[in-house]
């Protein structure tokens, strides 16, 4: 490692001689001490010497101990706020250092006080790793203080490895002693000996008896990573375990236990008061100790993990029967500090921190993502990962994001971050490599365009978002070469899609699939799911057997144990892998198909995935309705829950709640009666549903319309181009605050398959107020109501109204000609892409000099929507003989 050889001083000539000429510019000096008084004269001499040489001295104050320096001496004092989090403190240090400029001298309070705010030795090491290179770049010098025997190797290791000078300071029988432990770039025959301060000199202690007596008086400082020194977390949880043990003997007080419980909640569960209220009621000190024993690293476990644990605890604490219904789980939690450490060790922490604007994202996010995906993990983390995989054996697992802001009361982050399956087959080395790749992929998703756009849209880019991980055993069993649960899905405690007067929105709904739940939350192809109203499970949106057959699930997501991949197969293929499947629970007989097969003496696969046996012949619906109502009542908020269902050996089913989060649902507004037959030439849209979202009456100010007949002729590549252009228009609409905005287009918005619709991400349409799907892609495609998907959760969060339009139905009117002849603003908004103006049309309202408005009238309870032109007189002109322009 190269250093600037320009010399500077410790302010003590005798100490400079010990260090063979003082300090180099760029040196970071760490003083290891028993208490503040051990190093006070060294710090004050350093500052005084720097001021005497006209150098700026910057004192960074953040600890509760007595001040090291005073401003009266000419020192610049800056107060930091550790409670605002690691990211804030590091960014503020960087700002102050850069402002001080080249050659400045910095003094830091005792770093050992920071773990009390951050609850992590690991983050202490990360701070030094990020700060030391900046000191070197600025040719500055810095003094850091560190309490001896106070930190684990997670904090000490990076400090010992990356600082240039490490010195122990102590007092013994009224004398002061120093002992350099590391001095980079210089050497002498006595450099690493114990030295006593005598007058203006520091004299080597050569007598063995004196050296032994002094060094034995304070603990040996072990700096190597193999040492099991007790860091902040270890000490804290050891104290918590002692409190529990003492309670059994009546030796600990309730106040001790409560204080420790509250402290641990903020260390590992959450700092969001909404979740802390729930955790105080449904967790205990023993709960937190059990969670810690399944943790890798330190830090918060994140929103997804907390939501899953709370849902299970709420149910089990409410009624004993849930202990028998819920499938046991043995999840692991990778703390958020591991994410920070990974970024720091792979030199991409500052790059991620710098993604603060849309311009930053567009310019740098791909590079940051690439660096994260190719980073390396510290050896001690790899060893812990390997131990965890040894525990799971060869059972499939899933690595799920569990960021600090994910699944909270304000932001769901639905589908914004990755979840990665690990089939977990092969040698231990192959399994570890696959797991590390999965973790990298989830970490990289923290800076994906979709995630960053979501943060930007919600004003969260400057917040301290951290990525913890939840590692879960995949629920289910092996069926031939395939692994999957019998059923999975997502349930809501509130049903926003009321297609019948018999449906109670407050009873909730669920979206149910056979196999892995990935099919329930992603709009990936032209398949369908079973949508169930929990108070009326037998009332289907479809009419008649032909529609039920047409809209039944046909493909199943499974883990292929032979190819080590997540794959989709036809239901018939999946069934043939395991003839013992209990099909009577999940399928209905297609008697028409059976009769045809008999008549033609042909073998036809006839079962239809309707889930009728599960819904009619088991208490599953009642259990799910009670489950959702129970959790929602404790949350005092509607919730959505991802779950699996498996039947095991004739013992009934087990439900596994794998994720739970608050659901933002607005109460339906009071909607005026529909206008009595507006003139036909003014009626542009009329539909009888589906209409999903908050009922409303509002004037639309801009419409973006994708012309179906032209879009249907485009290549797959061009359809992706259309999606990108809509994203550009969306950005322009956000900047101009042009709302409400209506978006109309053919097929399914947000699909991953362009042949089914328009493959936008939610970031491409997040300025939209009303989203309309025109059922015109091909004859057999209907808009699969996306309830429960990640895409739908985004609609809910954005308070976006969803309308499906069937132009060929008798009860539907859609004036396509009007939308195609209105004045198109696309060429002036995106002049470089003018050739797409025929396919994408944009027009603004009001029209006719400001007197003609487009009013949308939507009633989600009655599943009706109208859009019509409304004509008003101009407010400045009241003459009866005037006509609208």
Please, could you describe this protein's structure?
The structure is a single chain. With 885 residues, the protein is of the alpha+beta class. The protein contains 31 helices and 40 strands. The strands form nine sheets. A nine-stranded mixed sheet has the order 5-4-6-7-3-8-9-10-11. Strands 29-36-35-32-31-38 form a six-stranded mixed sheet. Residues 223-229, 778-783 and 877-885 have low confidence and may be disordered.
Keywords:
disordered C terminus, 35% helix, six-stranded mixed beta sheet, 31 helices, alpha+beta, 885 residues, single chain
Distance between the termini: 78 Å
The chain-level mean pLDDT equals 87
Count of helical stretches? 31
The share of residues in helices is 25-40%
* Major β-sheet annotation: 9 strands, mixed
What are the segments in which pLDDT stays under 50 over at least 5 consecutive residues? 223-229, 778-783, 877-885
Give me the count of strands: 40
Structural class of the secondary elements? alpha+beta
Give the strand order, joined by hyphens, for the main sheet.
Answer: 5-4-6-7-3-8-9-10-11
From the spread of the alpha carbons, the general shape counts as globular
CA-atom Rg in angstroms: 33 Å
User: Hey, roughly how much beta strand do the residues contain?
Assistant: 15-25%
Secondary-structure map:
Blueprint: E1 7-8, H1 13-18, E2 23-24, E3 28-33, H2 40-52, E4 57-61, E5 76-79, H3 86-100, E6 105-110, H4 115-118, H5 121-137, E7 141-147, H6 153-162, E8 165-172, E9 175-183, E10 195-198, E11 201-204, H7 208-216, H8 232-248, H9 254-269, H10 273-282, H11 285-292, E12 295-296, H12 303-318, H13 322-325, E13 332-334, H14 336-345, H15 349-353, H16 358-373, H17 379-392, E14 397-403, E15 419-422, H18 428-445, H19 449-457, E16 467-473, E17 477-479, E18 482-484, E19 487-492, E20 509-514, H20 518-521, E21 530-533, H21 544-550, E22 555-560, E23 565-570, H22 571-577, H23 583-586, E24 587-588, H24 591-599, E25 608-609, H25 612-616, H26 620-635, E26 639-647, E27 653-662, E28 683-687, E29 691-692, E30 696-700, E31 702-706, H27 708-711, H28 716-736, E32 741-746, E33 748-749, E34 757-758, E35 770-774, H29 790-797, E36 801-805, E37 813-814, H30 816-821, H31 826-829, E38 840-844, E39 852-859, E40 864-871
Parallel strand pairs: 3-7, 3-8, 4-5, 4-6, 6-7, 12-13, 31-32, 32-35, 33-34, 35-36
Antiparallel strand pairs: 1-2, 8-9, 9-10, 10-11, 13-16, 14-15, 14-16, 17-18, 18-22, 19-20, 19-26, 20-21, 22-23, 24-25, 26-27, 28-37, 28-40, 29-36, 30-39, 31-38, 39-40
Helix pairs in contact: 3-5, 5-6, 5-14, 8-9, 8-11, 9-10, 10-12, 12-26, 16-18, 16-19, 17-18
């Amino acid at each position: 490692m190269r250093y600037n050889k320009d010399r500077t001083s410790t302010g003590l000539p005798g100490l400079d001689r010990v260090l063979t000429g003082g300090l180099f510019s760029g040196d970071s000096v760490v003083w290891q001490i028993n208490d503040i008084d051990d190093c006070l004269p060294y710090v004050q001499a350093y500052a005084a010497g720097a001021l005497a040489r006209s150098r700026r001295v910057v004192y960074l104050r953040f600890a509760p101990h007595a001040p090291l320096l005073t401003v009266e001496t000419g020192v610049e004092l800056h107060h930091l706020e550790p409670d605002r989090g690691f990211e804030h403190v590091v960014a503020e240090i960087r700002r102050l250092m850069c402002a001080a400029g080249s050659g400045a001298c910095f003094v830091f309070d005792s770093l050992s006080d920071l773990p009390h705010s951050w609850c992590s030795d690991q983050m202490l090491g990360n701070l030094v790793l990020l700060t030391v290179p900046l000191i070197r770049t600025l040719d500055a010098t810095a003094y850091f203080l560190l309490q001896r025997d106070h930190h684990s190797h997670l904090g000490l290791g990076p400090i010992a490895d990356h600082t240039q000078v490490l010195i122990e300071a102590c007092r013994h029988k009224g004398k002061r002693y120093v002992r350099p432990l590391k001095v980079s770039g210089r050497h002498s025959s006595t450099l690493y000996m114990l030295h006593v301060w005598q007058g203006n000199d520091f004299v080597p202690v050569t007598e063995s008896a004196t050296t032994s007596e002094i060094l034995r008086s304070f603990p040996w400082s072990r700096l190597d990573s193999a040492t099991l020194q007790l860091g902040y977390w270890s000490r804290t949880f050891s104290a918590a375990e002692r409190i529990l043990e003492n309670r059994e003997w009546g030796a600990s007080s309730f106040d001790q236990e409560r204080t420790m419980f509250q402290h641990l909640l903020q260390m590992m569960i959450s700092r969001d008061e909404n979740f802390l209220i729930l955790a105080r009621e449904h967790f205990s000190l023993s709960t937190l100790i059990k969670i810690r024993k399944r943790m890798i690293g330190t830090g918060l476990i994140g929103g997804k993990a907390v939501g899953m644990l709370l849902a299970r605890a709420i149910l089990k604490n409410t009624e004993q029967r849930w202990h028998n219904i819920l499938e046991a789980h043995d999840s692991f939690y990778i703390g958020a500090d591991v994410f920070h450490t990974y970024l720091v060790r792979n030199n991409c922490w500052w790059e991620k921190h710098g993604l603060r604007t849309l311009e930053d994202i567009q310019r740098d996010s791909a590079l940051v993502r690439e660096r994260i995906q190719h980073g390396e993990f510290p050896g001690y983390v790899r060893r812990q990962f390997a131990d965890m995989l040894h525990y799971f054996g060869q059972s499939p697992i899933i690595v799920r994001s569990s960021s600090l802001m994910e699944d909270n009361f304000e932001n769901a982050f639905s589908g914004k971050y990755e979840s990665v399956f690990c089939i977990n087959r092969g040698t231990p080395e192959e399994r570890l490599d696959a797991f590390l790749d999965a973790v990298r992929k989830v970490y990289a998703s923290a800076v994906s365009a979709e995630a960053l756009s979501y943060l930007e849209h919600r004003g969260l880019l400057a917040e301290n978002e951290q990525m913890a991980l939840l590692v879960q055993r995949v629920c289910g069993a092996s069926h031939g070469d395939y692994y999957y649960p019998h059923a999975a899905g997502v349930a809501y405690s509130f049903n926003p899609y009321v297609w019948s007067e018999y449906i109670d929105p407050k009873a909730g709904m669920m979206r149910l699939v056979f196999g892995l739940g990935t099919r329930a939350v992603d709009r990936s192809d032209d398949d369908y799911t079973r949508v169930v109203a929990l108070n009326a499970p037998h009332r289907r949106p479809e009419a008649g057997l032909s529609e039920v057959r047409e809209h039944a699930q046909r493909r199943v997501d499974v883990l292929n144990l032979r190819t080590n991949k997540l794959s989709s197969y036809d239901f018939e293929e999946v069934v043939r892998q395991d003839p013992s499947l209990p099909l009577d629970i999940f399928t209905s007989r297609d008697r028409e198909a059976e009769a045809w097969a008999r008549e033609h003496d042909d073998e036809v696969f006839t079962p239809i995935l309707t889930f009728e046996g599960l819904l009619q012949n088991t208490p599953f619906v009642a259990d799910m309705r009670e489950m959702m109502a129970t959790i929602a009542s404790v949350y005092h908020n509607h919730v959505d829950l991802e779950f699996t269902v498996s039947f095991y050996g004739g013992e009934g089913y087990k439900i596994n709640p794998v994720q739970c989060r608050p659901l933002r649902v607005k109460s339906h507004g009071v909607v005026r009666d529909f206008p009595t037959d507006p003139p036909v030439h003014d009626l542009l849209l009329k539909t009888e549903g589906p209409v999903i979202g908050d009922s409303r009456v509002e004037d639309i100010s801009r419409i973006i319309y994708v012309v179906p007949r032209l879009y249907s002729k485009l290549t797959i590549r061009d359809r992706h181009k259309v999606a990108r252009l809509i994203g550009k228009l969306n950005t322009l609409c956000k900047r101009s605050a042009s709302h409400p905005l209506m978006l109309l287009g053919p097929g399914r918005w947000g699909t991953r398959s362009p042949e089914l619709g328009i493959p936008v991400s939610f970031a491409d349409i997040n300025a939209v107020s009303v989203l309309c799907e025109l059922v015109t892609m091909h004859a057999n495609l209907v808009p699969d109501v996306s309830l429960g998907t990640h895409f739908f959760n985004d609609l809910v969060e954005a308070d976006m109204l969803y309308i499906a339009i069937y132009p060929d139905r008798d009860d539907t009117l859609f004036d396509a000609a009007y939308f195609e002849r209105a004045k198109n603003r696309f060429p002036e908004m995106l002049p470089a892409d003018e050739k797409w103006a025929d396919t994408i049309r944009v027009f603004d309202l009001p029209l006719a000099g400001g007197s003609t408005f487009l009013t949308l009238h939507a009633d989600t309870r009655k599943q009706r929507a109208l859009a019509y032109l409304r004509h008003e007189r101009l407010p400045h002109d009241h003459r009866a003989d005037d006509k609208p322009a």
